[in-house]
Amino acid sequence: MTVNVPVPPTTTEFLGRSAGPDRRGTRNPSPSRPERGSSPREGQRVRPLTRRQIEDHLQELGDLYAETSGGGPWAWNQARGAFLRRLAADVRRPGFELLIAETTALTGCAYGFPVRGDGPWWEGFDGYLPGRLLRLAASGRLFVISGIHVPSRVRRQNQDRAWNLARRLQKRLLTDHGAAVAVTLVNRSDHRTVEALRSWGWRYIEGDTPRTAPLGPFRVLVLET
Fold this sequence. Notes:
It comes from Streptomyces curacoi. This protein is α+β, with helices and mostly antiparallel strands. It contains seven helices and eight strands; from the N terminus they run ββαααββαβααβαββ. It has a single domain, classed as Gcn5-related N-acetyltransferase (GNAT) (Aminopeptidase), CATH 3.40.630.30. Strands 1, 2, 3, 4, 5, 6, 7 and 8 form an eight-stranded mixed beta sheet that branches.
């Protein structure tokens, strides 16, 4: 599941571990409903990387992307290289932030950058953004989320929980930058990505139906704090 901004944001998936049982027992434990899916008990730590740390983790970040891109070795390497080139371009943007989630290994990441009312950031967004979002950009409260890479179970399970990893990552990006709204582009034919984003609280810029979406190869989705 992949999109990229402005050549647009990325949401990808890979297989992850399921949560293990809670072994803190008592002599007469009271019955309780088992926790569904991943939870904070897995200890996934979310933290930002500096530009230097991103350079140090390029191999891991590239592998994370490539393992989810599908296809044979040639497609694998091509997708990995294209992702790293896009990431290298985004890293140079003012205010760029990349968050990683980790246990004993990298388990996910999300990244993006705040925008202003001018500049080249909005290539690909031309004709899609209404005036209210352009005004938010002018005030520095609009944030482009360029990519989210999380385990496949995060897309399938507990999407509405605050501790869902994708929700944690996207909220942290907005909070760190004091943004009111996040925006992303999704390929119009990429229904799986749209479904995943909407399960994490994103919505069509036109409302909850794609019928009024402007013509073009992309759909714009927004996330409000």
